[in-house]
């Protein structure tokens, strides 16, 4: 431990000094030279009919990054399921007799009412965010996470049994995979028309309209599906594991 | 032309999603066949791309976002023969791993297949991309899939800790890389390799900014390539990962770290960092030599078979880093050949370890003593593997070593040959020692002082299999045969030298990306490469091979001494054992298995590398 | 303004590393890792900052208004997803380690020594 701290002390002093040197060489405010952002800001409305430049970058100009990013989420959900699987095997399906679920504190009425009242608006808001990414800040990632909180609210209001009932496990897993696969397929449509991967093949429509941006809303929906299902799966895996542990102890 | 370039990444990703969704409803054999077929298809596409891009590069703009007034606004794949060839090799090893794991891991449906395919896609993306942030994305995808695969046997403690160490180190490295990318962006406003290169040419007063940022950017890749002192996670991860995953970890994932560092250097920094070239050379030579020797010593000091092989990978990575550190075409070509040879040989050795694990539920050298008498195939795998590690012709490792040594001697650094010999000597000696003990029953029984094996691994296969199925040893045999065949294949060596020359051609790269047409191979001439050492002499044999013969002979001697220490006299033997144990103690101590220590080493390492460059103006 | 953000980014990176090195609990360590990551968020958005700049949403924007860099913001979004996933994986590992060994101390784990 002492050796570790000595080493770290030496290293971090050096690292901070180097980091500081780099900062000193970075341009100050207003002197930034970024042809990239100038090009994107100039092009995204005329070329793509998209008013949110961040979405244009994420889902189109650098959409290929986002494909990888989506699969990072996919891989880690798969990985979490693999890592946490053991409890599920040993315990069998936890849902069976959840009457004995070790939930010591029933949620109070206030929590139940508030959480349930929030479920509907959350879903609506999530869908709104997913489908309006091309117009305002938002898109599949943000909206997907919002959507995934809806089942969590149900869990807060009731218990894990209800959470499981409203999120059919097989269906959620398939949705996640479909979301991931759909992104790959939407990109591949262009290949059939002998254009490069992820080229827009749909009409761009009027900027500012919900159908604007060609394939961007579609990709956004695929991402939203993937993210929402992925996070529900994560919640499911961790909740199940935690409850199983609590039960066994 | 519009079809092929994205396929190595998109196809496995799509299949991964498909297998994850439909896998539970399909027969197991069909899933195995689909995944193996996908890997084969990826390999075929990559081979095609290697041939098509020969002598230049295919530039592929996703979404058809060609540069806007010579400024890249989209993400590009820049496919040159080195990258595509590496991707083909990745796909080949994935095929070998899938064959080995045919009907393997029955317990978790098809998640294993999905994760392996995602791993494949990420590695191909690393090989082909021409964009620094895109590379970061594939790097992270590779880590996410890798960590999950590493902790696959999650009902044991070892794999969990190995996966945690793997995850923390790689993530930290990636964060520093990302910080470096942001810093670079602040000066250049570009993310495409060629775009950054051009912007750096226009910048003035960069000062020490550039070398420091270079080290930051490649920090993640250095961690991945297991360069000393960033290598600690690797032996932990390998010791516990399932065998087919180990084949990929050792065979290509680690090498991709070096590949990425080399790609970033040659396509972005090479010209701008020219004043620092001597300092960079010193730095990487030191890192490579240290990795080679530390890895070799630690490998010899192991009794856990997979961990032994993992340390041997660290040692051989050191050799590859030496090849890169020469900053010559011949050195780089040698490294590329060495990557092929080492990946195949090491893959075969891991398969051998996997066979033992499957039969005897152990990878502890002492527990396995004398159990392998009836296993001639596995014994041959181990012995040939040791010969390959020592770099004997006609293994491809030999030609890699020869090229690196040749280039080193030309650069006035003959000591490189000695380091390479040491690496081969120690690692081959360790493998021969294991072979002698396991397959011939040689050696003293461990005395009371020896500790019990610390990492217990369950057998990986389902069901009782008293015989080793051919799907297990066949991949090893094929890999060894190819490792030998590659050595005989002179045109390959010629092609690699030409491709390495192109790889180093920063101006050609930038011109191809920014001024070439989208999708078509650019017309950029490559300087004619000079001949590769050993090429003209009948293809294989060359006078220099005495080094490798001596290495192998010494390795055999080392193994014999380690097996029979008392043959040289009881007192001398005891003294030798105690002396060796004492000398190895500090080395063992720093490989503590504790993530806090590793992060401290990481901090010091980065500070030392970047600090050295910053001070060597 | 921007320089200040950079300094905070450097501070977060260093303190996060310190947390990981001295951590006595794996959950704490995961959170320290997110602190290091927060440094990259700050650095990226700091790089994209323009004095007086508005968000890159092109609705009723006055002509010639300074606009912050959308590219780094997109990168940061990717970065956030990466963080979530890494933390999810590491927490899953932590849960299992706790189950196996009964504690979460990264220093107590010695299965991989030597």
Protein model, in words:
The complex is a heterotrimer of chains A (249), B (617) and C (114). Chain A has one domain (34-248). Chain A is 73% helix and 0% strand. Chain A has nine helices and no strands. Chain A has helices spanning 2-25, 35-48, 53-61, 63-91, 109-131, 140-157, 160-166, 169-192, 216-248. In chain A, helix 6 (140-157) runs parallel beside helix 9. Chain A is globular and about 60 Å long. Chain B is mainly alpha-helical and 617 residues long. Chain B has helices spanning 7-22, 28-52, 81-100, 111-128, 132-150, 157-188, 193-202, 209-217, 219-224, 232-240, 243-269, 277-300, 305-325, 329-360, 376-389, 396-410, 415-440, 470-488, 490-503, 506-515, 546-563, 570-590, 595-615; strands at 58-61, 76-79. In chain B, strands 1-2 form a two-stranded antiparallel ribbon. In chain B, helix 2 (28-52) runs antiparallel to helix 3, helix 3 runs antiparallel to helix 11 (243-269) and helix 16 runs parallel beside helix 18. The longest helix of chain B is centred in the first third of the chain and has 32 residues, at 157-188. Chain C is mostly helical. Chain C has one domain: Orthogonal Bundle (Helix Hairpins), CATH 1.10.287. Helix content of chain C is 67%, strand content 0%. Chain C is built from three helices and no strands. Chain C is elongated, with a radius of gyration of 19 Å. Chains in contact: A-B, A-C, B-C. The interface between A and B is large, with 71 and 87 residues.
């Amino acid at each position: 431990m002492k050796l570790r701290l000595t080493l770290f002390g030496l290293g971090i002093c050096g690292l901070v000094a180097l980091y500081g040197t780099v900062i000193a060489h970075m341009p100050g405010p207003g002197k930034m030279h970024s042809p990239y952002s100038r090009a994107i800001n100039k092009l995204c409305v005329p070329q793509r009919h998209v008013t949110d430049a961040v979405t244009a970058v994420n889902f189109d100009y650098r959409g290929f990054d986002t494909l990888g990013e989506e699969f990072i989420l996919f891989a880690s959900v798969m990985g979490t399921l693999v890592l946490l699987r053991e409890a599920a095997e040993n315990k069998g399906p936890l849902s069976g007799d959840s009457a004995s679920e070790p939930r010591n504190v029933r949620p109070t009425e206030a929590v139940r009412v508030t959480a349930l009242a929030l479920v509907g608006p959350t879903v609506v808001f999530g869908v709104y965010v997913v489908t309006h990414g091309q117009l305002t800040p938002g898109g599949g990632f943000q909206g997907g996470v919002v959507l995934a909180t809806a089942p969590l609210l149900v869990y807060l209001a009731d218990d894990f049994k209800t959470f499981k009932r409203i999120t059919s496990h097989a269906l959620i897993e398939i949705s996640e995979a479909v979301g991931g696969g759909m992104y790959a397929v939407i990109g591949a449509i262009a290949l059939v028309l002998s254009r490069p991967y992820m080229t827009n093949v749909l009409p761009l429509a009027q900027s500012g309209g919900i159908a604007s941006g060609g394939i961007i809303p579609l990709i956004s929906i695929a991402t939203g599906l993937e993210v929402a299902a992925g996070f529900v799966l994560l919640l499911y895996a961790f909740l199940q594991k935690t409850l199983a542990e609590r039960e066994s102890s | 032309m519009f079809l092929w370039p994205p396929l190595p990444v998109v196809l496995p990703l799509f299949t991964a999603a498909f297998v994850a969704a439909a896998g539970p409803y399909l027969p197991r054999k069909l899933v195995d066949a689909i995944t193996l077929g996908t890997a084969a298809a990826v390999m075929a596409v990559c081979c095609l791309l290697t041939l098509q891009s020969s002598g230049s590069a295919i530039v592929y703009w996703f979404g058809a976002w060609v540069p806007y007034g010579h400024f890249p606004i989209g993400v590009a794949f820049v496919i040159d023969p080195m990258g595509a060839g590496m991707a083909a090799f990745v796909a080949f090893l994935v095929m070998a791993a899938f064959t080995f794991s045919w009907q393997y891991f029955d317990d978790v449906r098809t998640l294993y297949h999905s994760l392996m395919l995602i791993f494949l896609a990420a590695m191909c993306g690393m090989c082909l991309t021409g964009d620094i942030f895109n590379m970061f994305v594939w790097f992270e995808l590779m880590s996410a899939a890798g960590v999950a695969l590493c902790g696959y046997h999650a009902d044991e403690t070892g794999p969990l800790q190995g996966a945690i160490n793997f995850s923390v180190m790689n993530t930290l490295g990636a964060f520093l890389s990302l910080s470096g990318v942001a810093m670079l962006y602040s000066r250049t406003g570009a993310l495409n390799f060629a775009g950054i290169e051009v912007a750096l040419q226009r910048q003035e007063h960069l000062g020490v900014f550039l070398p420091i940022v270079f080290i930051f950017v490649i920090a993640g890749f250095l961690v991945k390539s297991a360069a000393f002192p960033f290598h600690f996670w690797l032996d932990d991860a390998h010791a516990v990962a399932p065998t087919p995953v180990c084949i990929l970890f050792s065979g290509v994932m680690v090498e991709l770290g070096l590949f990425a560092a080399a790609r970033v250097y040659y396509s972005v920094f090479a010209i701008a960092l020219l004043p620092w070239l001597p300092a960079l050379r010193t730095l990487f030579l030191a890192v490579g030599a240290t990795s080679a020797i530390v890895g070799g010593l630690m490998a010899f000091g192991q009794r856990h078979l997979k961990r032994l092989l993992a340390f041997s990978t660290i040692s051989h990575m050191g050799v590859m880093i030496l090849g890169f550190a020469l900053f010559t075409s011949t050195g780089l070509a040698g490294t590329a050949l060495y990557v092929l040879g080492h990946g195949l040989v090491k893959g075969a050795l891991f398969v051998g370890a996997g066979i033992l694990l499957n039969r005897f539920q152990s990878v502890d050298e002492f527990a396995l003593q004398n159990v392998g008498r009836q296993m001639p195939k596995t014994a041959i795998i181990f012995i040939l593997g040791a010969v390959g590690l020592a770099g004997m012709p006609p293994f491809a490792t030999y030609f890699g070593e020869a090229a690196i040594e040749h280039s080193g001697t030309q650069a006035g650094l003959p000591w490189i040959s000695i380091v390479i010999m040491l690496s081969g000597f120690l690692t081959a000696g360790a493998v021969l020692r294991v072979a002698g003990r396991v397959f011939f029953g040689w050696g003293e029984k461990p005395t009371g002082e020896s500790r019990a094996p610390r990492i217990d691994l369950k057998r990986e296969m389902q069901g009782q299999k008293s015989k080793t199925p051919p799907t297990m040893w066949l991949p090893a045999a094929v890999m060894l045969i190819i490792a030998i065949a590659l050595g005989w294949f002179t045109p390959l060596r010629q092609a690699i030298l030409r491709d390495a020359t192109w790889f180093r051609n920063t101006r050609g790269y930038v011109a191809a990306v920014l001024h070439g047409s989208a999708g078509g191979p650019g017309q950029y001439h490559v300087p004619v490469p000079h001949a590769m050492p050993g090429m003209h002499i009948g293809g294989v044999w060359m006078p220099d091979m005495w080094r490798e013969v001596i290495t192998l002979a010494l390795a055999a001697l080392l193994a014999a001494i380690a097996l029979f220490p008392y043959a040289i006299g009881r007192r001398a033997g005891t003294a030798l054992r105690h002396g060796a144990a004492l000398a190895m103690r500090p080395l063992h101590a720093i490989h503590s298995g504790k993530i806090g220590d590793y992060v401290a080493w990481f901090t010091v390492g980065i500070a030392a590398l970047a600090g050295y460059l910053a001070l060597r103006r | 303004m921007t320089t200040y953000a950079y300094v905070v980014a450097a501070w977060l990176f260093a303190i996060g590393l310190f947390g990981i090195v001295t951590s006595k609990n794996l959950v704490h360590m995961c959170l320290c890792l997110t602190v290091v990551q927060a440094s990259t968020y700050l650095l990226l958005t700091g790089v994209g900052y323009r004095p007086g700049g508005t968000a890159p949403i092109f609705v009723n924007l006055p002509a010639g208004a300074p606009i912050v860099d959308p590219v780094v913001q997109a990168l940061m979004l990717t970065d956030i997803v990466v963080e979530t996933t890494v933390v999810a994986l590491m927490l899953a590992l932590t849960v299992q380690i706790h189950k196996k060994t009964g504690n979460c101390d990264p220093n107590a784990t010695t299965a991989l020594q030597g």
